[in-house]
Amino acid sequence: MWDIIVSSTPEIVWAGIKYTIPLAVISFIIGFIIAVFTAIVRITTPKGNPVVLFFWRLLKWFLNFYVWLFRSTPLLVQLFIIFFGLPNAGIQFNAFTAGIITFSLNTGAYCSETIRGAISSIPDSQWEAAYSIGMTHRQVLFRIIFPQALRVALPPLSNSFIGLVKDTSLASSITILEMFMVSQQITAKNYEPLLMYSIVAAVYAVFCTVLTILQHYLEKRMSRYVQVTGE
Questions:
Q1: Nearest C-alpha neighbor of 170 from the set 67, 98, 69, 112
Q2: Residues 104, 131 contacting (CB under 8 angstroms)
Q3: Into how many domains does the chain fold?
Q4: Is the dihedral of CA 31, 37, 40, 42 positive or negative?
Q5: DSSP character for 225?
Q6: Where does the ABC transmembrane type-1 domain lie (predicted)?
Q7: Is position 230 within any domain?
Q8: What is the pLDDT along the chain (231 residues), one digit of tens a residue?
Q9: What is the per-residue burial (b if ≥16 Cβ within 10 Å, else e) of 40-61?
């Protein structure tokens, strides 16, 4: 048993470093950008000529549909549609790119709700105070509101990232050689499914534990200026 653990663990860890972590990090960064854009559009109504307002409402409708679609369908189905389904429409991606696209869009949909809720939680008095000193809407949003909202959103965003690291195991279904698929390949050789899946579970647990420690550190750093008042 120990021989299998010693020989298999480095392969699984290397697959995590080579595919699982990059897949999760790249997808989360892109997904976060999508989420911020989506959240801001959904909570903002610009003042201007009717043409601009019409296209803004059209964009808002499209983003509402996007969020609904990706939150209402399983991630595995989304992976299959993008990797196996789109080639029938003449659109083809390699496995890693298809994984990035799917995980990014899925993450963006969920995180946009987190960011939208965090922005909405900031009191209206913050907006009014900033407007009273002559700041524009954009300045208020990015200098005053968004930094506060990011602190509120950090815990659920961190949870989303940790969940994404674990969800990358689904990438094995589209032939990406991440940790879970490597463990399956090794299992096919040594016929020790319980041991191999326990090893890969332990590696996932180590990765997620490190991320949880980092989450707690970031929460403390972002809350260091927040005054805690008691009765």
A1: 98
A2: no
A3: 1
A4: negative
A5: T
A6: 17-215
A7: no
A8: 778 888 889 999 999 999 999 999 999 999 999 999 999 998 887 777 888 888 989 999 999 999 999 999 999 999 999 999 999 999 999 999 999 999 999 999 999 999 999 998 888 888 888 888 888 878 888 888 888 898 899 999 999 999 999 999 999 999 898 999 999 999 998 888 999 999 999 999 999 999 999 999 988 888 776 654 444
A9: bbbeeeeeeeeeeeeeeeeebe
Three-state secondary structure along 68-119? HHHHHCCHHHHHHHHHHHHHHHCCCCCHHHHHHHHHHHHHHHHHHHHHHHHH
In whole angstroms, what is the distance from residue 38 CA to residue 112 CA?
A: 6
Is residue 131, in this structure, part of any structural domain at all? Answer: yes
Question: Domain range holding 46?
Answer: 21-175
Contacts for 169 with CB less than 8 Å, ≥ 6 apart: 178, 179, 180, 204
Angle formed at CA 211 by CA 209 and CA 214, multiple of 5 degrees = 115
Note whether 111 and 31 are within 8 A (CB): yes
CATH number at residue 82: 1.10.3720.10
Q: Residue 218 domain-assigned?
A: no
Distance of CA 81 to the CA centre of its chain: 19
Q: What is the pTM of this model?
A: 0.91
Angle between helices 95-120 and 21-43 (to 10 degrees): 40
Question: Considering the domain boundaries, does residue 85 fall inside one?
Answer: yes
Angle at Cα 114 formed by Cα 112 and Cα 118, nearest 5°?
Answer: 115
